[in-house]
TrEMBL record:
Organism: Glycine soja
Region of interest: Disordered: 59-92, 329-349, 522-577
Ranges for domain J: 95-177
Protein name (database record): DnaJ-like subfamily C member 2
Annotated Polar residues bias: 548-577
GO cellular component terms given for this protein: cytosol
Taxonomic lineage of the native organism: Eukaryota, Viridiplantae, Streptophyta, Embryophyta, Tracheophyta
Positions with biased composition (Basic and acidic residues): 60-71, 329-341
Cited Pfam families: DnaJ (PF00226), Myb_DNA-binding (PF00249), Myb_DNA-binding_2 (PF23082), ZUO1-like_ZHD (PF21884)
Amino acid sequence: MAVHTEFPLITYSQEIVDGQPIFVSSNCLPIKALKFEPAGHSFHSAALKLLGVQEDNNDADDKKVVDDKEQTYLPSDSYSSKSKKKSGTGDKQQDHYALLGLGHLRYLATEDQIRKSYRETALRFHPDKQAALLLAEETEAAKQTKKDEIESHFKAIQEAYEVLIDPVKRRIYDSTDEFDDEIPTDCAPQDFFKVFGPAFMRNGRWSVNQPIPSLGDDNTPLKEVDNFYNFWYSFKSWREFPHADEFDLEQAESRDHKRWMERQNAKLTEKARKEDYARIRTLVDNAYKRDPRILRRKEEEKAEKQRKKEAKFLAKKVQEEEAARIAEEERQRKEEEERQAAKAALQQKKVKEKEKKLLRKERARLRTLSGPILSQHLLDISDDDVERLCMSLDIEQLRSLCENMEGRQMLLEQAKVLRYALSSKKEEVVDEKTNQQNANGSIKANGISSLSNIEKKEKPWSKEEIDLLRKGMQKYPKGTSRRWEVISEYIGTGRSVEEIMKATKTVLLQKPDSSKAFDTFLEKRKPGAQSIESPLTTREELGVPAPASTNNVEDSQNKSTDNQNSPANGVSSSSEQDVWSAVQERALVQALKVFPKETSQRWERVATAVPGKTVNQCKKKFALMKESFRNKKSAV
């Protein structure tokens, strides 16, 4: 429509504010302004449209989708042949989305949209609907060519539908679709979200888990940011990686050849998948390093760590200062205590010296008062008695005694006071000794009673009982039911199970022949020699005089010095005891053979076997015999 030049341009007010709805004035009807005001040619065109002198061209945008569906099929050169099985004829892959009129949606197209578009496209390009095109051709060859083209186009539409409606085939086809694999490496801090946001959205199409989280903006909470990066660090892709050098399995010559092709294709696919995962990981790493939110958190964590470090250092410093202060106070307290202790010790020393001085003074006073009494020998008071009082009485008692004596005028009365003090002190000493003796007697009585109880509790085992115990243990071995009760009944002496079990660990472990060794020795002795029936035979039974007790010897020494060298109570002197008879020597030699070195209490047993000799005498005689034997051997 032609524009009339007689219409003037629109005039408007200067009070236009961006984003605010205002009304403009012109020579036409008033209109409500939009959010974005037209300017330049757009402003003039809008004014002409309002006047009705220019048509609206918005219908062209509405017809865009229809144009995509109406376009004739042409093979696309923008998609390389990467599928495992190539579609159509030739080496070029057809654009399935363009065939079905979904070129503007592509991988975003839903299954319902694919089905609807396929029905419309198939109905439109069906060979029966294209019969009119055949009539337009003049020659038969041209008609046949046109017919083949129509059928080929319809088959391509069917193939596109079969590929896009199958999820597996569509995934393979979408993997070969155009895609920007470029990874942003660096950007300005203020452009981070503009650069990396589209990259993540672009690569999110390959994610198995949908929907993918958004990168967000600068105000996104850190929890969502962490979830975003956790998602991408554990990213799982469904993308297929058909390679140009892959083998076509349909061209395999045999089964083994096909398996070999599959292995080779799997290697190429795995290599491409690793490269794609490395690319995604690089994208996530680059974004994580440059994310301003992560950088702020790291700075905050670093500042918090530094703050904690400084706080810890300050706390440690305060603690050290407090410890130093406490140590200093403790040192000062100890020094003060030492000074006080030294002062107290010095004071106590002075007091003790003063007390000693006073004590010496009182003792000298008592000796002075006792001098006349001692010179006249009144009441049999001796110097030792006075000294005993001086050393046993304390200062108060001495002072009281001296004052009491000074209060008496007569010398005899003073002597009586002194004698009374001596008798009182002696009674105290006697009472103390009596108490000690009573205490010792009670302890001794308790010990005797406890020993008697032990003897009553532990009854010794006789030889017959030991033999019966051995036979019972052999007769009733381990595994016998109620073994110890049966053995107790077998012995028949009223022994309890505890006593029998204890005897098996003590009595039965002794060597059975050790108790008969001494009896065998006595039986083998000569008839003329004096025999000892048992090791417990006393010297009185053999007629051998026993040695005198120590108390008798001391009493005899106190009474008379003439009896020191004479035998006491029938005991021979040392010179007589050193004399050995032939019988005693033979008994010693035989006892040494019977009781070897490893025998317990060897010399006690040897001395018991030799009549009239002690342990020391046997040892001395044995040493002399050994020395004599060595001398004879050296002489030979």
